[in-house]
Amino acid sequence: MRAGLFVLTCWCAVALCADLIASDLPIAISLDGETFVLPALTRPEALQHQTQATLRGRAAWMLGTLVPFGPTQTVVTSGLVRPEPPPWSPDDRHWLGTDEIGRDVLARLVHGARLTLLIALGVVLLSTLLGVALGALAGWKGGVADLLVSRALEVASTFPTVFFLIVIVAALRTPSVTAVIVVLALTRWPEAARLMRAEVLRLKDRDFVVAARALGAGELWLLGRHVVPNALPPIVVSATFAVGSAVLLESALSFLGLGAAPPAPSWGELLQQAHRSLVTPDAWWLALFPGLAIASLVLATQAVGRGLARRFDARP
Amino acid sequence: MRRLIVTRLVWMVPTFLVITAITFAVAHLAPGDPLQLSEEGASAAAVEAARKELELDRPLVARYFVWLGRLATADLGRSVVDRSLVTEKIGDALPRTVLVSGLALVVATLLAIALGVLLAVRETKATRAVGAVLALASGVPSFWVAVLALLWLATPRGVELFPFQGLSSEGGGGLDLAWHLVLPVACLAWPTVAMLARYVREGVSSALRQEFVRAARARGLDERTVVLRHALPNALIPVVTVLGLHLPHVVAGSVVIERVFGIHGMGVLAFEAIGTRDYPVVMGVATVMAAVTLVSMLLTDLAAAWVDPRIRLPGSGAR
Questions:
Q1: A-chain residues within 8 Å CB-CB of B260?
Q2: Is A94 part of any domain?
Q3: Could you tell me the pLDDT band of residue A184, with boundaries at 50, 70 and 90?
């Protein structure tokens, strides 16, 4: 649990501070008497077509990033010419190597963490909210609402998800991040709904609910204040595991070339690139590192999920 | 038992209709149609005629019912792109998908049962290592393993042990097919083994703590019989259910694996069809995959009822 939390926090920090860790421009620089802070975000005129390598000699002082390359910076834009063409294997300059147009793998991984985590967390948040709302409705109201939600649950879980995703994502041509989140959430809500429905059914006739009702509490108050909060532990546990599977699903989707559009790279996309370049050179670093990143994130969420399950004594 | 089958079959109909209707709507509401994509140089009259044939000028709901009517006579239409029958295309692709994912499912289940039992009855350094590997494996994307396997086991730079793409090479027989199947099946089975073995292990070790196992031991049965004939069948009941719920994931995984290994199955077919907005093929693939998923879920439900009398005989008091 602790190790899982550590890895998860690290990835979140990397995602949040991606521009401070890997960028084509430095964190802060003083050039010709002018000081720029975070030029990677403001993109000032004076630093156009510059990189950390070209700026190093000219600046009065400069606070560089740990990885002095941007995620889309190619061999052409970085101006680092080498006798042999890219992809270059890992060395002291490109720690994890580069792809076939000279983009730094580590920089792409760091920035990919942002997209991957954003999509995974968005999917889990949206699908959990949807599932909790529909599950609570079904469990609490019963009757027609329950029948409808239960049927919808059945349809949603027998849906050939990936074929549907292929259809819908291709229909959108170049899907935006929001579109990918919504589509994935629409296929992931049944889990939370099923759990929530079962929990509400278990809780709705408990003494504390009956007592609150006897004291004159309204339906919404009963549900929102008494039933749902008590039903949350298994939902939280299953949502934690869902983060891991959302990461896997998103990367599979990007791997198929159906993810959010480039140039923002997601981890699945890096693997797709690795697969494409399998035919020609033996660039093992392209395949190895993005997969390790995905696996570490998924395993971390699983470890946290197991820890939470033990703590809450709740099995999803 | 018969009543259970009938109820499940009846409920499958609305589920199937909803799935196909949603897919139909999404596929057809997508911007752009096959005519724009495939025949940009065609004359206005030709485009109009083709549009008539595909009935693109009729309302969506009407087209859905026409499509449904044709489906009833096993007519899925013709591909817009190469005019071949959709049923033929699917007939060509489906066996490959079924072969790869079916084989993966069988291999994964058998392996998971063997590993699960082993982990439940033995606790040595070796089994603990196997358990750790399985725990790690559940977080590892199968397509990553596939890419790495290709890289190191099928390219000249690694060990060129397995074929790189496809399901058969020229003039190859059964052995050749089996050789081509090794990597795809292994990569597809991998996550299922990891997930299922944990359930088997938990099931067997909790069954081993129960009264009926103690009774069986007290009667002097040997440990092998106790585990395999008494504990394991009881542990398998939840496994069957989990397997049913997991089935769509295996199908989903097969799409990615087909892509990596260049196998022309349903996933690759759907992929190509979407790129050219070939509606009849897209709908055909989605329909057949929905039917396959529904039928296999029905089969797992029936298998669950078969191994567990409590489901088969409702109201018999055991619950």
A1: 275
A2: no
A3: confident
